[in-house]
Amino acid sequence: MSSTLFRRSLTILSLCVGLSAAACGGAAGTDDDGNDANAAMSQSGAVEFMLTSPVSSNDPATAASAVAAAQWWPAGCATRAKDPTQPIVTVTLNNCTGPFGLVKWSGTMTVTFAKNADGSLNVKAASTNMTTNGTPATFSMDRNITVDASTTRTVKGTSAWTRTNANGETVTHANSWTAMVDAATKCRTVNGTGTTTVGTKAIATTSKDYKICRTNGIDGCPSGTLTHVMTPGNLAVTISFDGTSNASVTGPNGSRKVALVCQ
């Protein structure tokens, strides 16, 4: 499967997609929660990227070998080994540096591949003794990948990620989505939901036909819609994308256009 397609499939489910909290119409105190949501989704997506992007076959053994042999792991800090008799890959992280401030990222992930009854590939992952920035973290994933044609994939399922933020609060992110990925056009379209909790607050995100394509290794501007609802307070924000470097954001403080970091 084309590299980087999966990582972005999750990271797009971020609060205001990197926009300022003011653009989201947020209230005081919402900024940090939004940043934590953005970080949690990106961190979870980065892990999934490492575990799923090499897959180009529904065969468990072939998929496991591809993940074990992949070259786009954190340089100098990660090792991976395939079980000699089973489609299982063990990934060991040793003081890696990850996205959004993750440093000293260590621990083990066990990745198990199996064939589903319908012929699709099931990929399960679970962390052991994982830490980030010296505090406990966990990751789990249960995705089904269907190789629809020579270049297209369908990815469905769930994942969950927890860590501790700089304020000592537990940040938990869970999602359930379907991604349609075309390795030839470098496009992926995501529909689904995700929830990030920061302490006692929760941010629920719905993605509808959110599409991004890559050109020359760079993500283009998105199209589609993201809706975020934060509780308590039921602060709702809808972000509409039209494929340009501007987005329309509608929130408690009205609507406005904001610039995106894309091209």
Describe this entry's structure for a reader:
15% of the residues lie in helices and 51% in strands. The protein is of the alpha+beta class. The chain has a 15-stranded antiparallel sheet that branches. It starts with a helix and ends with a strand. The model is unreliable at 1-32 (pLDDT under 50).
Summarize the structure.
The chain has 263 residues and is of the alpha+beta class. The chain has three helices and 15 strands.
Envelope shape? globular
Mean pLDDT: 79
Fraction of residues in β-strands: over 45%
Characterize the largest beta sheet: strand count, sense, and whether it forms a barrel.
15 strands, antiparallel
What's the β-strand tally? 15
Class by alpha and beta content: alpha+beta
Distance between the termini: 24 Å
- Name the helicity range: 10-25%
The run of helices and strands is HHHEEEEEEEEEEEEEEE
Number of helices in the DSSP assignment = 3
Q: Report Rg.
A: 18 Å
State the low-pLDDT regions, or none.
1-32
Core attributes:
globular, alpha+beta, 263 residues, disordered N terminus, 3 helices, 15-stranded antiparallel sheet, 15% helix
List the helices and strands and how they pair.
Blueprint: H1 5-11, H2 30-52, H3 60-69, E1 78-82, E2 88-96, E3 105-115, E4 121-132, E5 135-136, E6 138-147, E7 152-164, E8 170-182, E9 187-198, E10 201-215, E11 218-219, E12 223-231, E13 235-242, E14 246-251, E15 254-259
Antiparallel strand pairs: 1-2, 2-3, 3-4, 4-5, 4-6, 6-7, 7-8, 8-9, 9-10, 10-11, 10-12, 12-13, 13-14, 14-15
Helix pairs in contact: 1-2
